[in-house]
Amino acid sequence: MRQNLRTCRRRLDRAGQVRFVRAEPENVGPALDTLFTLHAARWRERGEAGMLADPRVAAFHREAARAMAEAGLLRLRTLLLDERA
Fold first, then answer.
1. For the whole model, what pTM was predicted?
2. In whole angstroms, how large is the CA radius of gyration of the chain?
3. Could you tell me the CA-to-CA distances from 40 to 2, 18, 27, 49 in Å, in that order?
4. Is 40 exposed, middle or buried (0-12, 13-18, 19+ CB in 10 A)?
């Protein structure tokens, strides 16, 4: 697995500028927006909506992520390649 990770990291580095952004209480909303957008795009390819399309599920995740970020427990990172998620 370590070798796999190193290989993937080298490929990313060759593809462009790589940056990881950790979700903190002040940016957890935009981080979740990105996650939800990517999730919807992936499921749209399959002709489905995905579970995060349900407003109640999305609201739960937003509330839980905010509370976890404030408690220092959230582990959510956005990988940016040339500043694009």
1. 0.81
2. 15
3. 30, 23, 20, 6
4. middle
Which ranges constitute the DSSP H helices of the chain? 2-15, 28-45, 55-70
Which burial class, exposed, middle or buried, applies to 21 when counting CB atoms under 10 A from its CB (0-12, 13-18, 19+)? Answer: middle
pLDDT in tens, the chain (85 residues): 889 989 998 998 899 999 999 999 999 999 999 999 999 999 999 999 999 999 999 999 999 999 999 999 999 999 999 999 9
Q: Cβ(81)–Cβ(11) under 8 Å?
A: no
Helix axes 55-70, 28-45, angle to 10 degrees: 140
